[in-house]
Amino acid sequence: MKHEISRIDLRLPERWCGWRPGDAPRIAQRFATDLTTGPVAAARLRSALEAVDRAVVGLHTRHVRAGAWVPEPTGDVVAGLACEILAEVPAGPEPAAAYLRRVQRKIYRSRRAATRIAYHTATLRELPAGTAVVTLRSHGVLRHEVIWTVFPPGAGEAVELRFDTRSSERYQDLLSYAEAIAHRLRVGVTLPRAAAPRPAPPARVTRRPGTSAPAIPTQAPGEVGRPVGSPPPDALAAGAR
């Protein structure tokens, strides 16, 4: 039986901030105080973090962390991070290799025809958290992404770390940060919970002819045991004491 991902420990470097999707309006002020200088920069960062948060929440997927890279105290967000649990992973003993082949087919199509998302490269890497597929892709010429899809051993799910930036000048720096964050990722897995037993169907109730009051519940044909509705064997003895 495949395990489920139960815990994700995402450790971010300095000048990065991370939060649970939906929490940015509550914690943006703290990050603005720590990472910026001056009220204008603080307001800029708060607005940017809330925009990143809305974008992640709006995807309606299993994102468990969001993050941003703020390299300068001016409050400009240079890159974003979205951490998602992927439930649909390739079956078989080597899901990472199967996933790599899937991405390689997308690279082949990108090189043969114009597509909205251009896939450039995909490689396998080994991490403490498991085998990873590293994908580089672009949305047009303005937005660039590096994606680490990590497959923990024995798990039926994967962790996707998706980093994106609109800064071509900072893209190489983002690649280095993404690799460092992926190497520090720790994932806990556990067996899925057993399904709760279904409740027994209620006993059938019959009605005496000519009346509206319910009769004593009866057993279904073939059932074995004390007749339904009968007192327990020691009820009379208990009442006599």
Main sheet summary: 7 strands, antiparallel
Tally of separate helices? 5
Q: Based on helices, strands and strand pairing, what is the structural class? A: alpha+beta
Strand content: 25-35%
On the 0 to 100 scale, the average pLDDT is 82
Number of domains: 1
Shape designation: globular
CATH superfamily: Mog1/PsbP, alpha/beta/alpha sandwich
User: What's the CATH first level?
Assistant: Alpha Beta
Structure write-up:
The structure is a single chain. This protein has a single domain, classed as Mog1/PsbP, alpha/beta/alpha sandwich (Protein Transport Mog1p, Chain A, 3-Layer(aba) Sandwich). It has 5 helices and 9 strands, in the order ββααββαββββαβα. It has helices at 24-35, 39-57, 95-112, 171-184, 235-240, and strands at residues 4-9, 16-19, 63-69, 79-86, 117-127, 130-139, 143-151, 158-165, 186-190. It is globular.
Note the main attributes of this structure:
241 residues, alpha+beta, Protein Transport Mog1p, Chain A, seven-stranded antiparallel β-sheet, two-stranded antiparallel ribbon, 5 helices, 29% helix
SSE diagram, text form:
Elements: E1 4-9, E2 16-19, H1 24-35, H2 39-57, E3 63-69, E4 79-86, H3 95-112, E5 117-127, E6 130-139, E7 143-151, E8 158-165, H4 171-184, E9 186-190, H5 235-240
Antiparallel strand pairs: 1-9, 2-3, 3-4, 4-8, 5-6, 6-7, 7-8
Provide a compact summary of the structure.
The protein has 241 residues and is of the alpha+beta class. Helix content is 29%, strand content 28%.
